[in-house]
Design goal:
- The structure is a single chain.
- By secondary structure, the protein is α/β, with parallel strands linked by helices.
- Helix content is about 35%, strand content about 15%.
- The protein is built from 14 helices and 14 strands.
- The strands form 3 sheets. It has a 6-stranded parallel sheet, sandwiched between helices. A 6-stranded parallel sheet has the order 11-10-9-12-13-14, with helices on both faces. The protein has a two-stranded antiparallel sheet with strand order 3-4.
- Helix 4 packs across helix 6 and helix 9 crosses helix 12.
- The radius of gyration is 21 Å and the shape is globular.
């Protein structure tokens, strides 16, 4: 089968990739830019691609909001004149492409890619952007439309999707309540990044890598409660609630990280804190579950009803019921560093044996074939 996978990435990752990791990359062919982005290891739905290709499927994997790579695809497919009609004022080379229509360049370039590639399966992982309006523009040019989602529920119409997969059981139920077929498919770890990481030792005892925002109110209060008692190394953007006195927190802050630098930092940490997005409800579901364990650090996460579907608490990971419980367990573990390493190694073995995309791909294929 032919799969077209479309997702988006954080602008901070693109800035790092094109400015720091690979200066001059923007002028290179599409294939070279694609390889460079893949090897930067920002997690997208494109992580499905190697497992699908290994089974003989043809995959076009695109990043909708990467202007340099998307423009290069248009140029290499003789679509420059078409490109000029739907940019929104981004500077490409020595000229500016203007937007004078309702649908933006990110959507419209993907429309051209769908029409050119004509996939059997169109897999979209940004449902805020790629909704019914987009699917109406590519109607007749694809076989099945599959969405992937596990974040704040979209408010736009998604009725044209044949299937939406989610790693959150509550969101599977929510989509089904809207009359959309939805099935549970877990997230996973992209093990291809491991050879790119260095053994630098455990530089940080307890760390958090991620965001604190309006969508993470519970996370903000949890981290603040922990950081009043324990030192926490923190990488990311933070919008703390107004009633939290950040001066009282024992947090060492650093800028956000993406891709390989993020994974390297996780590997450098003895224990990695995780606290789910408010939208996750009572279910364990985020990439950090597999990112921290996949690189071999000990995951310390909030206790969810389905956590044992992925890891065994007390043997492979640590779970907590609240901040006080977390602080107590972390203090006990810091007195037994050998136990930390044993549990971390056990969790990494579990990830590589059961929670990679080569494991998950059969679940996906069973739902669409």
């Amino acid at each position: 089968m032919r799969f077209l996978i479309v997702d988006s990435v954080y602008s901070g990752f693109l800035n790092w990739l094109y400015s720091e990791r690979a200066p001059g990359l923007a002028g290179r062919p599409f294939a070279e830019q694609y390889d460079a982005q893949v090897n930067g290891f920002f997690h997208t739905a494109g992580a499905w691609a190697p497992a699908l290709r290994a089974l003989g499927h043809e995959v076009l994997d695109v990043t909708a909001n990467n202007p340099s790579m998307q423009m290069r695809w248009m140029l290499e497919n003789d679509l420059l004149d078409r490109l000029k009609t739907f940019s929104d004022g981004l500077l490409f080379g020595n000229f500016v492409l203007q937007q004078h229509q309702e649908v933006d360049w990110q959507t419209m370039i993907v429309v051209e890619q769908v029409k050119r590639f004509r996939p059997d399966v169109l897999l979209c992982a940004n449902l805020y952007m790629f909704d019914d309006r987009f699917l109406s523009l590519v109607s007749g040019h694809y076989g099945k439309a599959v969405g992937q989602h596990a974040a704040v529920m979209p408010g736009n119409s998604l009725q044209r999707y044949d299937l939406i997969i989610s790693s959150l059981p509550n969101q599977v139920e929510a989509f089904a309540a809207q009359g959309i077929r939805s099935e549970l498919v877990g997230l996973a770890f992209d093990e291809r990044l491991l050879p790119h990481l260095e053994e630098r030792g455990r530089r940080h005892d307890l760390a958090f890598v991620g965001q604190v925002s309006a969508a993470h109110a519970g996370r903000a209060r949890f981290l603040a409660d922990v950081a009043r008692e324990l030192p926490v190394s923190f990488w990311g953007d933070a919008q703390w609630p107004a009633d939290i006195d950040t001066a009282a927190l024992r947090i060492e802050t650093a800028p956000p990280l993406w891709g390989l630098p993020m994974y390297q930092t996780l590997k450098d940490c003895r224990m990695v804190l995780n606290y789910h997005l408010d939208a996750a409800g009572e279910y364990a579901n985020n990439l950090r579950l597999f990112e921290a364990t996949g690189v071999g650090s000990l995951l310390v996460t909030d206790n969810k009803r389905n956590i044992r579907d992925y890891f065994e608490p007390g043997e492979e990971i640590v779970v907590f019921d609240d901040a006080a419980d977390c602080v107590g367990k972390v203090r006990d573990l810091l007195r037994d560093p050998d136990r930390i390493e044993r549990m971390a190694q056990a969790a990494q073995r579990r990830v590589l044996a059961q929670h990679t995309y080569h494991n998950r791909v059969q679940d996906l294929l069973a739902l669409i074939t």
